[in-house]
Amino acid sequence: xxxxxxxxxxxIAVFRPHISKTSTVQDEPLVWAIDDWHSxxxxxxxxxxxxxxxxxxxxxxxxxxHWLHGLEPRFVMVLEAGWLERIHRTHLYRYxxxxxxxxxxxxxxxxxxxxxxxxxxxxxPVQDLVAxxxxxxxxxxxxxxxxxxxxxxxxxxALHFSGTRLKNALGYSAEFRTSESAG
Length: 183
Description:
Elements: E1 3-7, E2 31-35, E3 50-55, H1 61-68, E4 76-80, H2 84-89, E5 92-97, E6 103-104, E7 111-114, E8 122-126, H3 129-135, E9 139-143, H4 147-153, E10 159-164
Parallel strand pairs: 4-9
Antiparallel strand pairs: 1-2, 1-5, 2-7, 3-4, 3-10, 5-8, 6-7
């Protein structure tokens, strides 16, 4: 297993536990990492709102057809179309994090946490964000607004889902009646 941290800053020598400025639920200082399977979710600018989803094991063939349109991607990632230019302009860096420093969150979201200072093993540029996402087997979709999709995805019993930086989405909060979370 590999764990990563993505940043637009290429010069982070040490990750110190902190409470994220954007968190509404975090109550202790942590260092965050993401596992390899979920990592394409972070191959966009930090503030880019995104909705990701993939079928649960119990999803029926009808569920899969409805959400995946006959395809079998790792997951589907939907971004606001207005972010495409910023995605192309963003320079992103992937930090390889030492696995032994982290423990998994209990929500099976692919997030790992450390309560200690972490020194990354290496950092490397992510060259083309769109190509990286697609190359990981993710189906990339664009929408004008994420709210209507979020309402459907976050209540679909057949799906695991993740909503990140939804507060930056057009129409927030009127179009987002459920909490920003992973399922």
